[in-house]
Specification:
The structure is a single chain. Strands 14-24-23-16-17-18-19-15 form an eight-stranded mixed sheet. The model has no long low-confidence stretch (mean pLDDT 92). 49% of the residues lie in helices and 17% in strands. The chain has 35 helices and 33 strands. The chain is of the alpha/beta class. Bound molecules: adenosine-5'-diphosphate and magnesium ion (MG) (2 copies). One magnesium ion binds next to loops. Adenosine-5'-diphosphate binds at residues 40, 93, 95, 108, 110, 242-245, 255, 280-281, 325, 327, 336-337.
């Protein structure tokens, strides 16, 4: 049979753009050959041939076998060597190479073509008998494993036994006779295990080797790997047949692996290792410890110079850091592989920045090379990679970074212990909004339940605190104040370290490296700022967060939630008095106490932002969130009744009645947001006074005028907005008149209900800005309550692909995103000055940010630690769209 299609490409014929046919390795070998670099000649049998092999019933079609034979004849002529010759034999390597590299999936066979005759030829030709027999025993071993499926340890055990028997530490100490003996043993193993004699016909060796590589495409490991990495099973692998070069021909020979830059730090300096007098696989096999490439200068200076030159050529050609395999045969350098090198987040950022500065790539390319997650990774405190650690359990890597501290099992206690200057890791089943103060006080959070988007995880990410969640191996005993995992018991107060990037829980305290933006990262982000169209703001509820975000490049605050100010321990009693007040007088008293505290908070925040826009949202959550928990209160009252403590009992009973009264079946859809503002106007009025007092103080005392934006939450009806707008204006104008100050401010609304989106054209007539609260908007659009969804069915939904992505993590373009787009367009149609942004977790998530860019929003707002990520993602969205 003959075919039009080409299934075999020599390295001279191939090139990088044929990668789908040639696989990564083959394409790289061809590309290097094309550049005139020293690559031992060879051919690639294509991925399509692999598919044919399967169609033919796991056999190479005859015409491909003939094609290989033809090439061999040509190669023999060119190399002036003969396959299987007993005088001057041609030897080959057979190497697999898929399009996407699948590490460790398919093995390489070296020294193919050796048999009982040609080994003598090799010995004669090289004048080195030991070398020849060393090659032969390696070949039998590799061929036995890869093609004949003999278990690897059967060979390596024999090698070890022999070494021990003759007292050799190193395989280089084995003599020719030892090696000959070993070869006999290896052949016997083959005979016993594979029930065939070791094949002596080189052509048979070659064809079966090629078939074995094709066959390995569908071995179990390979299939599992492809499933796990979403790689198509139909791609197939290519096979490279290449002339051997020998690194094991003495001390002017060797083999090594180099990276053109340091893959761990990004430093622009050749990085890697090598072994003298060795064949490639010795490095990975760890039989001998390789040497640092820097010392290669001293052992083979001329080859080192050449290597440096060649690696530079490759890096320039590929315009990226390369991972290169080389072998030196008697002082002659050969390149055996090149590919784009894998790197850490830190290295990715440095390499991209450096390459742009060196002019190797342009800034746009540099910005696209860094992944937003890289930026996030380098921002957090990390466990010192050198530290020795004892991992006791592993949960979900819910919020990156590392934290060490004393194990504490309750939020209250965490707060107390932290107040004494101790570092704390809060350990609990899960966290609820009531535990916020504990999370705030802790260095990090470890929960035994809940997923990547559980409350603890979301809050921790928002605060930039490390978290490990859903670590169900850990059993907490709250009575005994300890947790156990396997047979380790950790008591409250003992120290642990968590790694939120890997999910590891580590016993004791380990060394950390501090978090800040590296110089390279700052450089990259500065370039990002010059490309991006979206502004990046931050969500910040206090001066500390605002200051951190400012350092990370936030251009303003997109969401300042005032309820977190109410939650702090010293304020809750005042807030409770406000809620429980029975007379106007009592209420005024509580408000008067709160006002200066709020004012102080705002002053700190505004000062940090140095005149940049700040969006303050008026009180949003239902008031019962500030009161004690209903069931706990019932329990307390019952206990008091039994004890008969009358006075305390009456107090608690009154509280209980109130709490019962305020209890709601669906608080998320209940008495909250602007509904509070309309029915209990005093609270909003107090807040507005505090906001404006803080702003006017800063303006008069420091001359810094804050761009104020007052935001009304949860509006669904224009009337709600109008009623509140009027009230806010009245308070604000009165205050400004008192100090005789002109201050521009905007009044706008959070858009978080579908009805608000549908009536955005009406609302925009009166509102100066919209800020999409996409968390509530997602809840109300899907009709999911986030906690219930994530706690009960969302996980299954995602698993079964009922929905593709968690809409609380990535903005749902088809539904929620459509509403955002509609509201933005219709709002701007009636009010062209309308400022539009998005706040909430989506504002820091790259895919959602790309959508916001597409909808032409003015800004995204996210937690301080996501600000750098968002700056990069916004630039990438712009670059990719133009
Ligand atoms: P992997 O995909 O595991 O890296 P390779 O096909 O790159 O496998 O082969 C592994 C090693 O075998 C190479 O690093 C190289 O040292 C050695 N090798 C492969 N082909 C040859 C050859 N033609 N001559 C000498 N050594 C080779
Ligand atoms: Mg390799
Ligand atoms: Mg909301």
């Amino acid at each position: 049979m003959c075919s039009e299609k080409k299934y075999i490409y020599s390295f001279e014929e191939g090139s990088l753009d044929l990668k789908p046919l040639l696989g990564g390795k083959g394409a790289g070998l061809s590309e290097m050959t094309g550049l005139g670099l020293p690559v031992p000649p060879g051919v690639t049998v294509t991925t399509e041939a692999c598919n044919l092999y399967y169609e033919t019933g796991e056999e190479l079609p005859q015409f491909i076998k003939e094609g290989i034979q033809d090439y061999l004849t040509e190669l023999e002529e060119n190399m002036d060597k003969k396959f299987g010759d007993d005088a001057n034999p041609l030897l080959l390597s057979v190497r697999s190479g898929a399009i996407i590299s699948m590490p460790g999936m398919m093995d390489t066979i070296l020294n193919l073509g050796l048999n009982d005759q040609s080994v003598k030829g090799l010995a004669k030709e090289t004048g080195d008998e030991r070398f020849a027999y060393d090659c032969y025993r390696r070949f039998i071993q590799m061929f036995g494993e890869v093609v004949l499926k003999v278990e690897a340890y059967k060979f390596s055990r024999k090698l070890d036994d022999l070494k021990e028997e003759v007292g050799a530490d190193n395989d280089l100490d084995l003599t020719v006779d030892h090696l000959k003996e070993l070869i006999d043993k290896f052949k016997r193993i083959v005979k016993e295990e594979a029930e065939v004699s070791f094949p002596q016909d080189p052509m048979e060796q070659l064809i079966t080797a090629v078939e074995a590589v094709f066959g390995s495409w569908n071995n179990k490991r390979a299939i599992i790997y492809r499933d796990a990495h979403d790689i198509d099973h139909d791609l197939g692998t290519a096979v490279n047949i290449q002339t051997m070069v020998f690194g094991n021909m003495g001390n002017d020979s060797g083999t090594g692996v180099v990276f053109t830059r340091n893959p761990s730090t990004g430093e622009n300096k050749l990085y890697g290792e090598y072994l003298l007098n060795a064949q490639g696989e010795d490095i990975v096999a760890g039989i001998r410890t390789p040497e640092d490439i820097q010392t290669f200068k001293d052992s083979l200076p001329e080859v080192y110079e050449q290597l440096v030159e060649v690696t530079q050529i490759l890096e320039e050609h590929y315009q990226d850091m390369q991972d290169i395999e080389f072998t030196v045969e008697k002082g002659q350098l050969y390149l055996l592989q090149t590919r784009t090198g894998k790197r850490t987040a830190k290295a990715a950022i440095k390499i991209a920045a450096d390459m742009a500065e060196e002019g190797l790539i342009d800034r746009e390319q540099a910005l696209l090379r860094v992944e937003p997650e890289h930026v996030e990774k380098v921002l957090h405190r990390q466990i010192d990679p050198e530290a020795e650690i004892e991992v006791i359990a592993k949960g979900l890597p819910a919020s990156p970074g590392a934290a060490a501290g004393k194990v504490i099992f309750s939020a209250d206690k965490a707060e107390k212990v932290a107040e004494n200057g101790e570092k704390v890791v809060l350990v609990s089943l899960e966290t609820t909004p009531e535990d916020i103060h504990g999370v705030l006080a802790a260095e990090g959070v470890l929960t035994t339940r809940g997923g990547m988007t559980s409350h603890a995880a979301v809050v921790a990410r928002g605060m930039g605190k490390p978290a490990v969640c859903g670590c169900d191996l850990i059993k907490i005993d709250f009575e005994a104040k300890e947790f156990t995992v396997g047979d380790t018991t950790v008591e409250e107060g003992e120290r642990i370290t968590i790694n939120g990037g890997t999910g590891e829980v580590i016993l004791g305290k380990v060394e950390m490296t501090e978090a800040k933006l590296s110089e390279e990262c700052k450089r990259i982000l500065k370039w990002a700022d010059s490309y991006k169209e979206l502004q990046v703001r931050t969500n910040a509820d206090n001066g500390t967060d605002a200051s951190k975000a400012f350092e990370f490049g936030a251009e303003g605050i997109g969401l300042c939630r005032t309820e977190h100010m109410f939650m702090a321990a010293d304020r809750v009693p005042i807030v409770q008095r406000l809620i429980l007040s029975e007379s106007a007088q009592e209420k005024q008293g509580a408000l008067a106490e709160l006002e200066p505290i709020q004012c102080q908070d705002f002053e700190e925040i505004f000062a940090e932002m140095e005149g940049r826009p700040v969006t303050v949202r008026l009180l949003d959550p239902p008031l019962h969130e500030f009161l004690p928990n209903l069931s706990e209160l019932v329990e307390e009252v019952t206990k008091l009744r039994v004890k008969g403590e009358q006075e305390e009992l009456r107090k608690k009973e009154k509280l209980l009645r109130k709490v019962k009264n305020m209890d709601e079946s669906n608080p998320m859809l209940g008495f909250r947001g602007c509904r509070l503002g309309i029915l209990i106007p005093e609270i909003y009025e107090m807040q507005v006074r505090a906001i404006f007092k803080a702003a006017t103080k800063l303006a008069t005392e420091e001359g810094v005028k804050t761009e104020l934006e007052v935001m009304i939450p949860l509006v669904s009806e224009l009337n709600e907005f109008e009623i509140l707008r009027e009230k806010i204006e009245k308070v604000a104008e009165q205050l400004l008149a008192e100090v005789d100050l002109e201050l521009d401010y905007k009044i706008g609304t959070m858009i978080e209900l579908p009805r608000a989106c549908m009536t955005a054209d009406q609302i925009a007539e009166k509102a100066e800005f919209f800020s999409f609260g996409t968390n509530d908007l997602t809840q109300t659009t899907f009709g999911f309550s986030r906690d219930d969804a994530e706690g009960k069915f969302l996980h299954e939904y995602l698993e079964r692909e009922v929905i593709k992505e968690n809409p609380f993590v990535t903005l749902d373009a088809a539904g929620v995103g459509k509403l955002v787009n509609l509201a933005t367009e219709s709002g701007r149609q009636v009010n062209s000055d309308l400022k539009v942004g998005i706040c909430g977790e989506h504002g820091g998530e790259p895919k959602s940010i790309a959508l916001c860019h597409q909808y032409e929003l003015d800004y995204v707002s996210c937690s301080p630690y996501r600000v750098p990520v968002a700056r990069l993602a916004a630039a990438q969205a712009k670059i990719r769209n133009s």
